[in-house]
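ARCHIVE CARD
SHELF: 3
SLOT: left
DATA:
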Amino acid sequence: MQYKKRTHTGGELRSSHIGQMVTLTGWVDTNRDLGGVIFIDLRDRYGKTQVVFNPQFSESIYALAKELRTEFVISVTGKVEKRPAGTENSKLGTGEIDVLAEELTIINKAETTPFPIDDKLETNEDLRLKYRYLDLRRAPMQANLLLRHQMYQITRRYFDEFNFIEVETPVLMKSTPEGARDFLVPSRINPGKFYALPQSPQTYKQILMVAGYDRYFQIVKCFNDGLNIYFINK
């Protein structure tokens, strides 16, 4: 299947792009047939852009657009136009423009999803986890991952400015029982032996300090087995 590579993301287009030919790819978020003209919101992780399919402009593209359903993966090429006065959407960064479709490729069709890809979702968490790849398409989940990424970057930049280096110490080590419940992983190489989460992370700290690493830090995973273990070496 041949289709053009995207030129812009779903949340990128603004009034300054009016008149340009662009190519967008993503999922069909909503589909509205308003009596002869079809409007869809094309979504990717960057945002949404409204695409217009007008039969007066292209009968063949309009006929193909009638097949579109939610979560179809498509590629659209068209010209950026200013929305008619009064139809702007102030809630979207792309709300002042739409794209008049001149080319449409259905990259992949989709069956009805087990739950709607909606920002305000009320469904069983087990179902969301079973279809995690769908849950992660929702804006709140994307915002969570983006916030986590930004916090990591802020943390790394801050410590780097003060000459800290980032060091990753082992996640598992020899068990050192100290009263708390051990999180154990059996060894396939040594039957009957186990690895455990470090209950004495200061062991690694001492090794690094003796080796001359006076400033270092680590962003550590948290495991939960009735006990939360957090540590940052610095």
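SLOT: right
DATA:
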Amino acid sequence: MLSQSTLNTRHNNKCTIKRGLAPEWIEVNCRSVSASEAKELLGYTAYSDGMWLEGANFQGQFKPDKPWESRDEKTGKKSRPKYRTPLEEYDAMLPKHPENKRYWEDLEALKLLCYIINGIPCLVITEGFFKAICGCTSQYAIGIYR
């Protein structure tokens, strides 16, 4: 069974001190996991402990402490990805709000947090879950598509 632990001190400091992210948002969206827990979440072997990032819609990514080398199946090139994605089907990651459990479900309230372009509310989509968290703490509804 997967633990529901919080972030360890090192991971917490990386998020809140180094990145300057709001602790209450980090607490509900991120947790430290062992390599064996990461393997269960990813559906394939993880070679490092790290952080599990999970949004309101249960989409997740793993940020290993020590990225490991892998080969891109399409190009054949080797790389050490900073983030790993589960094998299963995936979609946008929407950060959990620390207080409002219906943040992404209450569409009328969400429209008030969106950018307005030509009178139309628009969500901001960004690369990177930490950037999405940063945007949401700035009172804009931001998700990522990975």
